[in-house]
Amino acid sequence: xxxxxxxxxxxxxxxxxxxxxxxxxxxxxxxxxxxxxxxxxxxxxxxxxxxxxxxxxxxxxxxxxxxxxxxxxxxxxxxxxxxxxxxxxxxxxxxxxxxxxxxxxxxxxxxxxxxxxxxxxxxxxxxxxxxxxxxxxxxxxxxxxxxxxxxxxxxxxxxxxxxxxxxxxxxxxxxxxxxxxxxxxxxxxxxxxxxxxxxxxxxxxxxxxxxxxxxxxxxxxxxxxxxxxxxxxxxxxxxxxxxxxxxxxxxxxxxxxxxxxxxxxxxxxxxxxxxxxxxxxxxxxxxxxxxxxxxxxxxxxxxxxxxxxxxxxxxxxxxxxxxxxxxxxxxxxxxxxxxxxxxxxxxxxxxxxxxxxxxxxxxxxxxxxxxxxxxxxxxxxxxxxxxxxxxxxxxxxxxxxxxxxxxxxxxxxxxxxx
Length: 418
Prior knowledge:
This protein is mainly alpha-helical. 70% of the residues lie in helices and 5% in strands.
């Protein structure tokens, strides 16, 4: 009887530890952690809690098999399958999850309390103020990117207007979940329609630059970069799935844009060709700072880390421009991502918080989502050779970013895998 009680108590304690790890993996995935980092973190935490864990993470699921080495058997005793939607970056909640995990590992929290706190992190609804700030940030980022693309005031204002529209549309899936799958196509359609209408009836503008800047927040540049990094680290299932997801998003954006162009052409609404007059170069840096602030809001960064999060994209952009002025563009991108990768690990070691605070925002201006968009648009315009040439450029930039981040990890080893 005593042996049976001891076994029941041991099983209950084992399930408590496993429950905490399962909830931790769910939250890490939900807040945008990539497959290699999530698997490494779960393996590390499991080992520190006295468990052996085999984990497989994909963009839509997590599979974990647990065993207790103390029992002298390496066969899995419990297997958990967690079905999750693709995560999105939320730096504030990621920091909170990281803090809870640290306290549980240190013994300041028991497993049950840690699991409860992790659940509370995932159950907090966004405030109305956060929604308003997010919508405004969509507009600011689109307008700022238009300035960085060397457009004029008219193009920047139209892009900002379209960005606000996309920001408002991004809130719709909360009430109508089925709209989420059509968000990119609908956003591209409406933004292109608005740009064509303004160019045709109000004032001529550079249509391609406006559409590109308007859709910059929907382009899957980060997803493409993550996919290549997962493939390079031999996480083939996750990398392939994420790559196909990014291509699907690009196709939806291209379809929305092409549909708007064809609809307008059907009714004879064809905007005149116009070349924008670039704004003064000094305004580019103002736009760069505005974009960095908007990225901090869109990535939901903790307020106390705003200076670091805002400085990260400026750091990556400056090094990219400096090296790109004397080297091929791909090498400039490599240098920028190398500096960002090393800086993120250094920050994590000093501040004891996830390096994602620097890494995610630091490479946002380097990712080649816009290049992929142009590549597919050229193919749809039947300019296949130019489309292939642009696709090769995109692959070179993706490779440069991933190589820079990997070399950054080599120069400054991460504190932990987050």
